[in-house]
Structure formats: C-alpha cells, structure tokens
Here is the input.
Amino acid sequence: MIQIGILKSSIKTPLGVTPDTLKKWPADTTSFLIEKNAGLWAHFSDDKFLAEGAKVVSRAEVLEQANLLVISDVLSDQDLAILPTQTLIVGLLNPHNNKDFTAQLKSRNQKAFALEMLPRTSIAQSMDVLSAMASLAGYKSVILAANHFSGYFPMLTTAAGTVPPAKVLILGAGVAGLQAIATAKRLGAVVEAFDVRKAVKEEVESLGAKFIMVEGMQSDADTGGYAVVQKEEALAAQRELIHQKVVKADIVITTASIPGKAAPRLIEGVTVDAMQPGAVIIDLAAASGGNCELTKNEEVINHSGVTIIGDSQLAYALTREASKLFSVNIFNFTSHLIKEGLEAINFEDQIVKSTFIGKN
Here is the structure.
C-alpha cells in the first residue's frame, strides 16, 4: 500500500492534494495521511478530506507513516529527525534557492524529486507545475497592478471628457507574460510585450498586444524555451529600447528569468526615475534578484511616486486554485514515477532523471 503524506505548510503554498483529486487515486493501492488543518490556506476543511476517505492525523504521524511525502515547503530539522530516510519526497523543493535543504536531503540519501526541474517536453506538460503557477501569477499580477494604479484600465468616454486607456508593458512573454497580456487586454488596456524570443511573436500578437524586440538577440531554441544570456552589444540595444518603452508605460510587469541564474536586469534605476508618478512595476522575478534594479523581494516600495512590487509567489495568493492545479500535477507526476511500484523507479527515464535531486 502506498501511503501518501500531506503536510500543512508554514506559509501559503499550494496543497499536494485536494478533496476532489483524492478521487483520482486508486483506493485499493493508495491511502492518504493529511496533517490536521493542512487545507487551511486553500479553504479545504479536514471534514472534506475525511469524507473522501483520507485520514487526518498529526504532523508526526504523517512523517512517520507515509512512504511518499508531498511537500511545497522546506522541512525543518525536527521534521527530518522524524522522517524515515526511505520515504520518497515529491513536490516543490525549489533546489536553486533552498540549497541547504537540498544538501540535507542528499546527505541523508533521501530520494527526492523536485517538480521545478521537469524537462519542457510534451509528455511532461501535464506535470508542469511551473507553467501552472506562472499562469496564475500572470493573471494576479495584472489584478494587483490595477489595485495600485491610480488610473483607469479601459478607455472611458464621459460627458466631462475621455479617459485614455492604461498603457501596459509586459517584459517576458512566457506563460506568465502571456496570461498577463490576456488579462490586461480583457480589462481594456493598450498592451505591448517584449521578449528576446522571436518564437513568441505570433502568440503575443494573437492576444492583441504589440510585440517588440531587439534584432540580433541569441536564439532560445536549445534552452527549453527559457530566456538565455545575451551578448553585450545586444544587451545595450535592449536596455535602450526597454528604457524608451518603460518610461511611457503606466504599468510594467516583468517575468523574465533564467533557471539557476540571477534574473536578467531589464529596468535600471535611472529608468524608474524617468517614469511618471503613479506608475506601477510588478516584478515576478524578485526571488532571483529581480528584473528591476530597485526591486526588493516580498516588498512593496515607493520610489519617486512609482510603486514597485517584488513577488515571485503571486500564484500562491490564489491558494485554492493553485492547489487544484498542483494536485493534478502531483497526481500525473507520481503516477509516472511509481507506475511499477515504490521500489521499481526507473532512474533512466528522462522525467525521473531530470527531477531527481537525491542519491540513487
């Protein structure tokens, strides 16, 4: 019997299973141990889990009895002292930033799998938690910007005159950027989007935004669709173009990141100085240094009248929806991981090999 453990996170992060997704798991081979109040952030009561056949127990019981643990937050030293070393760990481990935690798992010979490391392949799409969270973050970034923006999104014609539409600039047209474009357009804004990848031009324009880029940028074809480090000449031209666009924008949403590296610097301090008071910057790359020079992670600052919000976990503000998506990602990944059983994991499989961060 596979006993899957779900812990309550100390912060708002998505839950690895929801009452609805419990139904997807085969009851004859799988049981769930849910820590009491684990669904608090996502508004899922213990009674809802109990109604679907899960057991609601203490944290210690989850750690002691589960042979597969799903997490979205680091484990404390106290947790690791209880957790058996043979327990499989699956979830959001954030290995690029949680290096101490990752090192602890390796030193224990714990088999751990980080979904952030999934390859960008068609077979892994249904497991792709980063894309799922990025879509939510892109939507939420526009809603957050609208709350802080002192103006109006759509054009409004009144007897007293016409209010022009907000000018929104999206830097980075990945999943988050595309969702931000779609949301800003639905609210009636005029939207422009910048990306170094020519391949996204058609998608950007199909959503109604104007695509802007610098010629001569390095291709992303061999990097799994992520942005790549560019040459200095191209970067200089890029900085000038972005400066010109940013200073005219009412709202700027930045989403550009490079896995395992510092986020590319796209907005200089002097550019922020030249922006109109009342403008808003939402920096979704804040956790890896930020796309804006002045960004402070998990902080809202006001610089000469410009509001700068650094938040790489905006998706988690939509904890209920994030949990629904994450729980499906977990089901699909785990079904692939242990399709032959807990003791027969194929470490030569591309998905397994890419996500594995422990010692085999």
About this structure: The chain has a mean pLDDT of 92. The first strand starts at residue 2 and ends at 6. The first helix runs from residue 19 to 22. The chain has two domains: 2-127+319-355, 149-312.
